[in-house]
Write a structure and sequence with these properties.
It is built from four helices and nine strands, in the order E-E-E-E-E-E-E-E-H-H-E-H-H. The protein is α+β, with helices and mostly antiparallel strands and 196 residues long. Strands 1-8-3-6-9 form a five-stranded antiparallel β-sheet, covered by helices on one side. A four-stranded antiparallel β-sheet has the order 2-7-4-5, with no helix packed on it.
Length: 196
């Protein structure tokens, strides 16, 4: 009984926040600032991931069921094989739909993973422009569009690679994150003026 019973007993997660709603948790490892994991809403008390924000960006894809994603004052239904990108410092939370559990994969990452130091060309040109864009609080990602389908596939592959941690997994994760970011960047309309 108790905690030794493994799967039979699991203490429910609760997101701790400060009075401004900032999530209080250990920061990501600055040497490789990304975390990817498999989650279920049933892991949280009442199937509710309370509204919170954090400086990291977040990517999520639903693998089974559906969840109600709250972003600021808006609410969106995210169904199986659909996803969402949430920008840094954006208030968000999720809950079950009709009290039915939902499985999903989630990736939290710092912009530094993509652009290196804040003075680099990659950071200035491709990361900061999206991160600081006021109207880019989030983007829903649906599989009907071929490029968005690729983004969803990449979220699956990134989480698998991160969790398995095989040789060179960091290089593979960063490579896929850059590909995903390129798709997101193009989707927001930020394409180079001299692009053909």
């Amino acid at each position: 009984t108790g905690k030794d019973s493994g799967e039979l007993y699991m203490e429910k997660k609760k997101i701790q926040t400060d009075k401004e709603g900032k999530e209080l948790r250990q920061p990501l490892d600055g040497k490789f600032p990304i975390a990817a994991e498999f989650q279920k809403l049933s892991y949280y008390a009442y199937g509710l991931c309370i509204s919170h924000w954090h400086p990291e960006m977040e990517l999520l894809v639903v693998t089974e069921g559906a969840l109600e994603q709250r972003i600021g004052e808006e609410t969106h239904m995210i169904r199986e094989n659909e996803g969402v990108f949430i920008n840094s410092h954006v208030m968000h939370g999720a809950r079950m739909v009709n009290r039915e559990d939902c499985s999903y994969r989630v990736i939290r990452f710092e912009p530094a993973l993509l652009g290196g130091n804040a003075k680099s060309l990659i950071y200035e040109k491709y990361v900061k422009t999206l991160q600081s864009q006021k109207d880019l609080r989030y983007r829903i990602v649906r599989p009907e569009d071929i490029q968005q389908r690729r983004m969803i596939d990449l979220i699956y592959k990134i989480t698998d690679t991160y969790v398995k941690r095989e040789v060179c997994y960091e290089l593979k994760v960063q490579q896929m994150m850059l590909e995903l970011w390129e798709l997101l960047y193009k989707r927001t309309g930020h394409v180079e003026e001299n692009a053909i």
